[in-house]
Amino acid sequence: MTDSSDIHLRKQALKLFETGMTVSEVCQLLGRSRTWFYKWRNNFRHEGLDGLRNRKRRSNPHNKT
Questions:
Q1: How far apart are CA 42 and CA 59, in angstroms?
Q2: Exposed, middle or buried, 52 (CB in 10 Å: 0-12/13-18/19+)?
Q3: Is 44 helix (H, G, I), strand (E, B) or coil?
Q4: For residue 37, how many other CB atoms are within 10 A of its CB?
């Protein structure tokens, strides 16, 4: 998925929730987990639309001494 399609899906999930669907219904319709929904809803609450963007992960070398 591209960043723009990811953002579109996240916006769609939030809009469906705002229209009165339950979190479970939204997640079932979109084929996503409730954890996924709450993560993006929380990011949106704190950061607005920027919170819906993909983030680069930090590398975590396992054998760091």
A1: 24
A2: buried
A3: helix
A4: 20
E strands in the chain: none
| Helix, strand, coil percent content, the chain, rounded in steps of 5 | 65, 0, 35
* Total residue count of the chain as it appears in this document: 65
Render the burial of 19-33: b for 16+ CB within 10 Å, e for the rest. eeeeeeebbeeeeee
Structure tokens, 29 = 């319709």
- Confidence class of residue 60 from pLDDT cuts 50, 70 and 90? confident
**How does pLDDT run across 1-58, given as a tens digit for each residue?**
567 888 899 999 999 999 999 999 999 999 999 999 999 899 888 888 777 787 776 7
**What pTM did the predictor assign?**
0.74
